Amino acid sequence: MKAPLKAMQFIKKNVHYLIVGAIVAGLLNVYLTGGWKVPKTVILSVMMFLVILPVMINLKIDEVFKHLKEPKVLFLSLVVNFTVSPLIAYVLGKIFFANHPELFVALTILSFIPTSAMTAAWTSLSGGKVETAMFLIPANLLFAAFVAVPFILPKVIGSQMTISSFTFIKSILIVFFIPLLVGLVIRTLLIKKFGVETFNREIKPELSGISSIGIVILSFLVLSMSRTKLLFSHPDIVPVIVIPLIIYYVSMLIFSTLYAKLLVAKKILKSEEAIVVAFASAVRHLNITLAIILITFPVEKAALMVLFVVLGFIIQIPLLGFYVQHYAKDFVANHQKRELQKATA
């Protein structure tokens, strides 16, 4: 195996540790040097080319149209992602972020951007239906990008910050639509040159590694900005961010689990489909959340919001990994076993 591929696998496997290291390095840089004035163009270049573009190359929009004849699972997923998730975020924001409107906004944006490539990964590890995951990921993101974020989100955060729908539409065009088109072109060219099989086997798995590198670099750059000095004068802000963030994720996992159980008990979905709905609800697309924040708000003013999302990376990956190992696998396997026993009885 070539050294670059080994390095990429190491990064993907240890991304949450590397993010912690990038945060520490950035804060150490601020402590020793007073921080940098990082140009927004640098931040946006890293974000667009290393973080967002690889995601868009992997995004299969055609999966949405293939599965539109199965609207039930999509509707069940959208209900949780765009009613329950924002409601939990809104309540937590009102309780914990009364004095920090920017953190209220960050949590609300996070709650409106569901799923990620990890939804498919967790589904696969749990024995769930990966085809359903590959359909729900782009479908949820499209709804978020063209309905929820530009038209619903401004009304939800209106009491904390006045941001027009046009501002979010502009952000979505930059963060989602343009990279989506570029990603589609690059994907088509790569498949044309190397073939579908080689693309899926050798190229596609490494794109998430490139995105992980981008997140690590972005974490260091953003935490190295001079405004981050406020963390040294107000270190108490870290638990203020972490506690509600953990509560949000745990609440979403608990609700998603009960929801999946109900769907199976009522024979609305099979267990391998219900667990996909659970993951599509609990997992947040932190890359796109971060991109929207950086595009919509001035970089220097968004320091706390960015820190909020960066800490989300540290919390989300191990928490979902624990959930897979200690619940999701057994949930799918046990229900499949019962179905098999009924069929052979």
Automatic annotation (TrEMBL):
<protein>
    <recommendedName>
        <fullName>Bile acid:sodium symporter</fullName>
    </recommendedName>
</protein>
<dbReference type="GO" id="GO:0005886">
    <property type="term" value="C:plasma membrane"/>
</dbReference>
<feature type="transmembrane region" description="Helical">
    <location>
        <begin position="274"/>
        <end position="297"/>
    </location>
</feature>
<dbReference type="GO" id="GO:0015105">
    <property type="term" value="F:arsenite transmembrane transporter activity"/>
</dbReference>
<dbReference type="GO" id="GO:0015297">
    <property type="term" value="F:antiporter activity"/>
</dbReference>
<dbReference type="InterPro" id="IPR004706">
    <property type="entry name" value="Arsenical-R_Acr3"/>
</dbReference>
<feature type="transmembrane region" description="Helical">
    <location>
        <begin position="73"/>
        <end position="97"/>
    </location>
</feature>
<keyword id="KW-1003">Cell membrane</keyword>
<dbReference type="InterPro" id="IPR002657">
    <property type="entry name" value="BilAc:Na_symport/Acr3"/>
</dbReference>
<feature type="transmembrane region" description="Helical">
    <location>
        <begin position="165"/>
        <end position="186"/>
    </location>
</feature>
<dbReference type="InterPro" id="IPR038770">
    <property type="entry name" value="Na+/solute_symporter_sf"/>
</dbReference>
<keyword id="KW-0812">Transmembrane</keyword>
<feature type="transmembrane region" description="Helical">
    <location>
        <begin position="237"/>
        <end position="262"/>
    </location>
</feature>
<comment type="similarity">
    <text>Belongs to the arsenical resistance-3 (ACR3) (TC 2.A.59) family.</text>
</comment>
<feature type="transmembrane region" description="Helical">
    <location>
        <begin position="103"/>
        <end position="122"/>
    </location>
</feature>
<keyword id="KW-0472">Membrane</keyword>
<dbReference type="Pfam" id="PF01758">
    <property type="entry name" value="SBF"/>
</dbReference>
<keyword id="KW-0813">Transport</keyword>
<feature type="transmembrane region" description="Helical">
    <location>
        <begin position="15"/>
        <end position="36"/>
    </location>
</feature>
<keyword id="KW-1133">Transmembrane helix</keyword>
<feature type="transmembrane region" description="Helical">
    <location>
        <begin position="42"/>
        <end position="61"/>
    </location>
</feature>
<feature type="transmembrane region" description="Helical">
    <location>
        <begin position="303"/>
        <end position="324"/>
    </location>
</feature>
<feature type="transmembrane region" description="Helical">
    <location>
        <begin position="207"/>
        <end position="225"/>
    </location>
</feature>
<feature type="transmembrane region" description="Helical">
    <location>
        <begin position="134"/>
        <end position="153"/>
    </location>
</feature>
<dbReference type="GO" id="GO:0015104">
    <property type="term" value="F:antimonite transmembrane transporter activity"/>
</dbReference>
